[in-house]
Design brief:
The protein is an alpha/beta fold. It contains 4 helices and 6 strands. 25% of the residues are buried.
Length: 138
């Protein structure tokens, strides 16, 4: 990482999110050009205070409310990913990933077919089923 105020701030936010505030942290997006950290979290005064204290001069932090932690999203994504063979023949499950705003995105070849099956198995909360033409490696 670059040794800039933004990247030092991001590293500190990562430490807070992985440690004492894992139960409220959801996700992070970065606008390098504007030195902005967008933080999604379950509202928590303690986490917000810690993040603001970690932010260096010149870095803007914006908070966005969610009702789910990253830990919960990771567990949901893992359960969906482990069921990859369950859907053989009905549709192709091409990717499963966490979106910082608090959802698990499930990429499939046919959302119309897949959505009711996936939602029937895992519920509708914190899920989005989207069309993905080919699996992508990030």
């Amino acid at each position: 990482m670059d040794d800039t105020p933004l990247f030092r701030t991001l590293a500190r936010i990562g430490d807070l999110a992985a440690g004492p505030h894992a139960d409220v942290y959801t996700g992070l997006a970065v606008d390098e050009a504007r030195a902005v950290a967008e933080v999604w979290r379950i509202p928590s005064a303690a986490f917000e205070e810690a993040v603001c204290a970690a932010a260096e001069k010149g870095v803007t932090v914006r908070f966005h409310d969610t009702d789910v932690s990253r830990t919960e999203l990771e567990a949901l994504a893992q359960r969906i990913g482990e069921d990859v063979n369950r859907w053989d023949g009905a549709f192709q499950l091409r990717e499963v990933g966490i979106v910082e705003r608090g959802v698990v995105s499930v990429g499939v070849d046919d959302p119309g077919t897949a959505r009711p099956l996936i939602e029937g198995a895992f519920g509708t909360e914190h899920l989005e089923v989207v069309r993905v033409h080919e699996a992508a490696l990030d």
